[in-house]
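Notebook entry, structure prediction.
Reason for the run: the old model in the group folder had no record of what sequence produced it. Starting over properly, with the input documented here first.
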Amino acid sequence: MLDVIQKEYFQPMKNELYQAYVAAWCFKRKIENLSHRLATETREFLLEELTSLRALANEVVLRLCNLDDDKSRFSFHAANKVLGQLSGVESVMKKKLADGVKDYRKIIGTLKTQHRNRYIAHLSGNHYPDAFLVTEMVDGISGPLGAALDLISLIWGARLSFGFHLGSRDRTIDFIAETAPTRS
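New structure, fully documented this time:
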């Protein structure tokens, strides 16, 4: 959907989602290895690990909420406004994007109101959630991550992939595939 100049303009949105996927991948890996590490590490480690998990979860939530910011130049709302005014964009694509932005707002709503607003940005909750409940975030972030990926892919005109190659002897990490919910 975007030409090269437009893609450069909206690159911060893509970067925001990439960083959300990196944090989500780290979060999921830490959760998957938690029971083994708890059996072999110190009690101090438990505090370190729960603090790290909470920080990673907060980062994912904040990045996903950034993409829903009404006032940002680099959000789905901004992209919808800019691309809606372009004459070269088909009306079917404009409608898909507008509908996708509305759907994303609904999907992100619980994370935004129950997590970001209450415990990160505005501290409007009566108390901070129990640190041991951090694992509940696993299911709460996969839907919004997937919805954000769908929207950015629609804007880009192709399915995006987010990976990282650690080194010549290592595999490439596919952040999207590896943060997808595990099916039981």
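Summary: The chain has a mean pLDDT of 84.
The old model has been moved to the deprecated folder.
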